[in-house]
Amino acid sequence: MKKYILFLGLALSGAVLPSCESFLDVNTDPNNPITSSPNFLLPGIISNGIQQQMFTSITTAYITQYAVRKTPGNLTDQFVLTNGNSTNTFNYAYFYSGGNVPTMIAAAEQEKSPYYVGAGKIILAMDLAHATDMLGDLPYSEAFKGAENYTPKYDPQEQIYATVQTLLDEGIALMKTPATDNFRPLYVSVPSPSGDILYRGDTDKWIRFANALKARQLNHLTKKASYDPAQVLQLVSASFRNSADDAQIQFQVAVAPLAGTTNIYGVTRSNFGTSTFSNNIIKYLNGTVVGAAFPGVADPRLPIMIANSSSGTDPGVLTTSPNLINGVADFYNGWYARDLGIFEVITFHELKFIEAEAAFKAGDKTRALTAYRAGIRAHMAKIGVGGTFANPAVTFPTITTAQIDAYLASAAVAQTEAQLTIKNIMEQKYIAMFLNPESWSDLRRYDFDPTIYPNLKYPVGAPNGLGGKWPRRMLPGATEVMYNPQAVAALGASAPDYITRPLWWDMP
């Protein structure tokens, strides 16, 4: 499903947080229920789980140098991170989304609706996977217990990775349950939409989604002796078939009493009014600028992803170039910054690049080349649909099949198995994963290698305490610092170089 109503879960799941048991069984307010059926809980679990990654991307868009600040100011593009940068990454996993999964699973098991149990496990796995990839060690074995334990211990990331795979396997098995064994349909449209707002009850797509997540996580282990590219390839084959399977959120105009339903990158939310595009991403797309990654090859995605007149800048460097277009920052004139655009969690084109990398490492250059080129084509086709948008007033060009074919035949793309390198795969994946926090995982796996990512610039004004190293993790969320300080202290997060310490999967 390509679209669903953002924050529908917020409207439907007002009772998802567990309440205290009443000491009197009288005066119950029928308009303020303390229980709910699974179909009214799942929308909030899905939408908030996706928003977890959306809010993380406000920080990682700068670390990965898709965006930079116009004016230096000891901010994220200079690798100055705070606990506040991580609060939503943690809270959306443990409170707004994952924290409500046990309540929904209990209700679903009681009424015998295993599809809802499966969906809950898959989304919880997604929440934990993203949180651990951004933060490292996490609470799980003692988490989600409510008042029984407000200060859970942190489990090692290796253990969290195993838990994610187990949850996804369990979710897949439950999604294979016959529909006749489910008390409640996974998607309900009458009297109003509820339940599975992601795939509208298509359990096959849920299974492909779970396999996509499994493939992504296992492909993170490229530095480990246990890395198995054949296993990754098997999972990719069982995952998304095309871009119609993409797991993504569709933003919408806010309808009272809801607010904040437009794009986190859009002009209405105003998160990037002080930002512009990095020289790094511009050099990948513009074949005419000095230092262009692909000299002489103008990428047809350029006028869609980035305003044509954007000159960009490097992190920590004051830009004197005009970057106001249509009266707002040039950042807001890109396809990804449409107020009513989308946010992608995991996509078909990402899976194609995962396949290309795994096949390359497995020695199957034929499959690697085919998948690499398919990833480029899929991304171009997805964002090249054209359209006119009012806020700001931008008309995006289409990308024709002929343009895609011409780009695939250009010097920007490897033409033969002999030409194909990891650099080819990762630079095209970097373009296609624009603004997605998963790009940070790739940069870390390849150690920000300048032979693979030649246009990355270490920020001017980065803290001396980092010793010239790149960030490898975010700080613990501010709520954990306040309410679970002993567990946070055990992480050693107060050290000046904490954010440069590699995660478990980022080490041999």
UniProtKB/TrEMBL annotation:
Domain of life of the organism encoding this protein: Bacteria
One Pfam entry for this protein is: SusD-like_2
Query: Where does the UniProt annotation place the signal sequence?
Result: 1-18
Keyword check for Signal, yes or no.
Answer: yes
InterPro entries per record: SusD-like_2, TPR-like_helical_dom_sf
The alphabetical list of record keywords is: Ligase, Lipoprotein, Signal
Q: Does the keyword Ligase apply?
A: yes
Q: Which GO terms describe its molecular function?
A: ligase activity
Q: What is this protein called?
A: SusD/RagB family nutrient-binding outer membrane lipoprotein
Identify the species of origin: Hymenobacter lucidus
Classification lineage: Bacteria, Pseudomonadati, Bacteroidota, Cytophagia, Cytophagales
